[in-house]
Amino acid sequence: MIVDRAHQHLADAARIWAEATAARDGDAEVASLEVSGDRIHQALDASPQSLLLISVDERGSVVGFATAAPRSPGDETTAELRYIGVRPDAWGRGAGSSLLLSAAALLREAGFARAVLEVYADNARAVRLYEKLGWHRIGAGHPHGVSGRLLEDYSLDL
């Protein structure tokens, strides 16, 4: 696991996010790297405490990433995992679990007491993984601001 404080792997993360969301949603069209990169860059610019985690396989290829930051300005107790993605050809090989476990450990070390994330309710693969690793659904689902798809909030005590 690599903590990329200089964001040298931002392009890798953007490519993975574009490919993973297209595969997850069954889209033939992959989002542009510019759009994906802008979203991830904004998440990383949210706070000096933001982090970019990179997962590499045995050959040294980047196969996954996660971003995390304080949930809101001035909240030093709750971190938010804003993006997590794994290359579709690496799904099921442990990169997602490794990213989530490493992110939780790093956030705990940074003094956060809790982590939260949002996930599409119909993303069964991700929901199973989060629940397997101890994340708990909190509150009622709510629609995504753009797509209208149902989002659920999850929390993990660190």
How would you describe this protein?
With 158 residues, the protein is of the alpha+beta class. The chain has one domain (2-157): 3-Layer(aba) Sandwich (Aminopeptidase). It is built from four helices and seven strands. It has helices at residues 10-25, 33-44, 95-109, 124-132; strands spanning 2-3, 51-56, 62-70, 78-86, 114-120, 136-143, 150-157. Strands 1-2-3-4-5-7-6 form a seven-stranded mixed β-sheet, with helices on both faces. β4 (78-86), α3 and β5 form a beta-alpha-beta unit. α1 (10-25) packs across α2. It starts with a strand and ends with a strand. The mean pLDDT is 91.
For the residues shown, what is the average pLDDT?
91
Radius of gyration, CA atoms, in whole angstroms: 15 Å
At the third CATH level, what is the topology name? Aminopeptidase
Largest sheet: 7 strands, mixed
Question: What strand line-up does the widest sheet have?
Answer: 1-2-3-4-5-7-6
Multimer state: single chain
Number of domains: 1
CATH architecture assignment: 3-Layer(aba) Sandwich
Portion in beta strands: 25-35%
Q: Would you list the SSEs in sequence order as H and E?
A: EHHEEEHEHEE
The count of strands amounts to: 7
Distance between the termini: 19 Å
> In the CATH hierarchy, what is the superfamily?
Gcn5-related N-acetyltransferase (GNAT)
Number of helices: 4
As residue ranges, the low-confidence spans are none
The helix content, as a percent range, equals 25-40%
